[in-house]
Amino acid sequence: MKRKLLGFMLIGLMAFSLAACTSQDKPKGDDAGKKTETSQTENTKENEKEDAQDSLSELPQIAQMGIITSDDASGNQIGIEVKGATEKDTQEIVLNVDENTPVVDAQTGMKVERSQLTKGTEVFAWVSNAFTASMPPQTTAYVILINVKDGVLPNYLEVDNIEKGESETILSDKPGAKWSVDNNLVPISLKDGKETTFDSIQKDSKCLVWPSNEQGKDGAIKVDKLLVLN
């Protein structure tokens, strides 16, 4: 009898312990809701971040704004400080350039000498979306712009297709964007700063376009100025 009673007591203690553990592991109603909501919010933010990274990786070039930190910007590398939303997000990147990397005044569309790229100068650079894993990260600069004002940033494009119409010429770039250039607009060549023709623009030509606030044919973005870089 004593053995049976002892057995029942042990079973009761085990059941009580199991119930206590289950009660501790199970979050209360409010806490469970908060944890679920927090988890969903974190997942949403992570998904948005991944979507943004995927979209970015599809672009062959991106724009970077920064302040030159290099004491000498005449070499093959130019360091710039890119400011983020917070001080923690601010970082330095290195632009790899060569003697053929164009430097352009965004207001005049004219070629600028590399000697004007001095420490402390604000620049906008269209760069490759591929960065090295080194610190600071390095990337290739396709074109460097100075004197960008009023939020008007010329777009860098590599021509993928040209459609010549009666009143406008449509330039398609490699990401698929379309740019509408009025046939009365005269392209300028960066090499000599002189006027050129649309015949000088071929597939894979590199250009800068100054977008307007209007749309052209089939949703193409109208262009106020066109600079042929090569």
Structure description:
With 230 residues, this protein is of the alpha/beta class. Among the domains are: 61-146, OB fold (Dihydrolipoamide Acetyltransferase, E2P), CATH 2.40.50.140; 155-228, OB fold (Dihydrolipoamide Acetyltransferase, E2P) (Beta Barrel), CATH 2.40.50. It is built from two helices and twelve strands; from the N terminus they run H-H-E-E-E-E-E-E-E-E-E-E-E-E. It has helices at residues 2-25, 29-58, and strands spanning 61-68, 77-82, 91-96, 103-105, 122-128, 138-146, 155-164, 168-173, 178-182, 188-189, 206-215, 221-228. The strands form two sheets. Strands 1-2-3-6-5 form a five-stranded mixed barrel. A five-stranded mixed beta barrel has the order 7-8-9-12-11. Residues 1-28 and 48-57 have low confidence and may be disordered. Residues 25-52 have a biased composition (Basic and acidic residues). Residues 1-19 form the signal peptide.
Largest sheet: 5 strands, mixed, barrel
SS strand fraction: 25-35%
Rg (CA only)? 30 Å
Instruction: Identify low-pLDDT runs.
Output: 1-28, 48-57
Mean pLDDT over all positions: 81
The CATH superfamily name of the domain at 61-146 is Nucleic acid-binding proteins
The number of E-state strands comes to: 12
Q: Termini distance?
A: 102 Å
Signal peptide: 1-19
Region (Disordered): 23-55
Organism: Peptoanaerobacter stomatis
Protein name: Lipoprotein
